[in-house]
Amino acid sequence: MLMIEHDVIIVGGGLAGSRAAVAIAQTNPNLSVGLISKVHPIRSHSVAAQGGIAAALKNVDAHDDWLTHAFDTVKGSDYLADQDAVEILTKSAAEVIIDLEHLGVLFSRAEDGRIAQRAFGGHTNSRACYAADKTGHAILHELVMNLLRLGTKVYQEWYVMRLIYEEGEVKGLVAYCLETGAIEVFKAKAVLFATGGYGRVFNTTSNDYSSTGDGLCLTAIAGLPLQDMEFVQFHPTGLYPVGVLISEAVRGEGAYLINDLGERFMGNYAISKNKMELSPRDITSRNIAQEIREGRGINGGAYVHLDVRHLGKEKIISRIPFAREEGMRMLGIDCIDRPLPIRPTVHYSMGGIPTNIDCQVIGVDSQPIAGFFASGECACLSVHGANRLGANSLLECVVFGKRSGEKVAEYASDRPMPKFDPTIYQREAESKNKKLLTHQGNTRIAELRQALQDLTTEHCGIFRDRTSLTEGLEKLQGLKHRYAEDLHLDDRGEVFNMELTAALELGSLLTVGEIIMTSALSRQESRGAHSRSDYPNRDDSNYLQHSLGYLDGNTVKTAFRPVNLSLQAVDRDRFTPQERKY
């Protein structure tokens, strides 16, 4: 049977995938590149990134440098970040900002014409470059225009159903076309996953509806591990009750967090009294959650206030216009006149598909998997460790999106096209869709998805313990059984069947949710975004390691691997693990 062939296939059209496509064309324009995205690339979740992209440009603070940026990143990670990857991230930052500017990105400017930079939580210096509070939008639009200009073939609104992994090598994938219902087998010398995060595993999230962890699920089903999945970042300022993000740029511009007593309560906690509202996200989220738990939410409710009224109308409109628009659009609140109700919302996945610094996916034994690469939020290098600093995610997508494209281009330039029989893979995918479309169960997708999201939020939220996690995993087995045996789809058509897509995504959410909770149960300490009330302290002697969660049949198993500490040789005083203090 015929297959669709490309030298390289990229899955995901957000910042990492788009930057990789541009890099491949720049490195070797003779390579055939196909980019598959389940939405139009411009609708990728990267477009929602607001606050900024970090780089030591020194436009605001002449004393900034890459090493200070690296230290902030490692310290913010609670020392779980791989320091060799952090060195590449921070050393490359200034270069990629200039590169983006040359590709057409319109950054906000200081009065002297240089790229403007603002303060961000956990950063020593003002180093977040931005385009008002629509930074991801500005970058993604230019990258997509450039990849189209350079000849990348885009398969938009295709859903990838299977990673073809044979004989220790990734050889291609199987994808379903939403427009026609056709299932096609793709063959390639290399596959790059840039599929984003999995915020929709939880019930309150800033993530797009498409952030369902599909790439991570496909990797796990292939028998490969996922790394550090217990580290789920709650952004401190999700608009209550909808969960939509109010950017960290708002606190970077000087917003206050206020409790029901009218206090700027961040000053009441020893770990945040110096940085106040610009403390790292894990600390700020826990403090807000603690205020709410102790009854100091506004009117005793489940939220606190984010107050920008003191900034003045002109600054609000010029610096944080989108935050103001969101408040008015979602709640009818104009932050010029009234504070915004906020509470933590699931925002980012520090964990993901483990890779080395060349973006090659690695197995449980830390050895690279032939033909398989990953970058962006779906990957775990790890440059964020247990907690990501704001403005470092866009930076990771651009730095390692570019690097992954260059490495993939080198890899594919002298590799033969792999050989395999596509028939079995196509038949398997067709059978899977047919079963979902014809099964006469009683459980609707929305009901089961809500049950999963409520379960993970209740049993694996900001605060966790053994009892809650164990109970959650037991309940999850029941949800998996209902998914397999009792699902019901009303739409039985094949063309643009969004219910079928939602059913496939729900399978991803169940798999990823189970690995998150199992990994959280195995890490018996508190570190960064992972807070165990039964193990309240960090335990470097046992857990200064990356966790690995992988499928063995229908069971999730865990293992660990060491953290890279190479920057200790550069500055032992700062890069040797120590207690986090701000």
Automatic annotation (TrEMBL):
Residue stretches making up the Fumarate reductase/succinate dehydrogenase flavoprotein-like C-terminal domain: 449-582
UniProt cross-references to PANTHER family, sorted A to Z: SUCCINATE DEHYDROGENASE 2 FLAVOPROTEIN SUBUNIT, SUCCINATE DEHYDROGENASE [UBIQUINONE] FLAVOPROTEIN SUBUNIT, MITOCHONDRIAL
GO cellular component: plasma membrane
Organism per entry: Tumidithrix elongata BACA0141
Alphabetically ordered keywords of this record: Electron transport, FAD, Flavoprotein, Membrane, Oxidoreductase, Transport
GO molecular function: electron transfer activity; flavin adenine dinucleotide binding; steroid dehydrogenase activity, acting on the CH-CH group of donors; succinate dehydrogenase (quinone) activity
EC number assigned by the record: 1.3.5.1
Entry cofactors: FAD
NCBIfam families given in the database record: PRK05945.1, sdhA_frdA_Gneg
GO process terms (BP): anaerobic respiration; electron transport chain
Lineage of source species: Bacteria, Bacillati, Cyanobacteriota, Cyanophyceae, Pseudanabaenales
Localization in the cell: Membrane
Membrane topology of this protein: Peripheral membrane protein
Keyword Oxidoreductase: yes
Matches recorded under InterPro entries: FAD-dep_OxRdtase_2_FAD-bd, FAD/NAD-bd_sf, FRD_SDH_FAD_BS, Fum_R/Succ_DH_flav-like_C_sf, Fum_Rdtase/Succ_DH_flav-like_C, SdhA/FrdA/AprA, Succ_DH/fumarate_Rdtase_cat_sf, Succ_Dhase_FrdA_Gneg
Keyword Magnesium: no
Similarity comment: Belongs to the FAD-dependent oxidoreductase 2 family. FRD/SDH subfamily.
Protein name as it appears in the record: succinate dehydrogenase
Domain FAD-dependent oxidoreductase 2 FAD-binding positions: 7-394
Catalytic activity: a quinone + succinate = fumarate + a quinol
Active-site residue numbers: R281
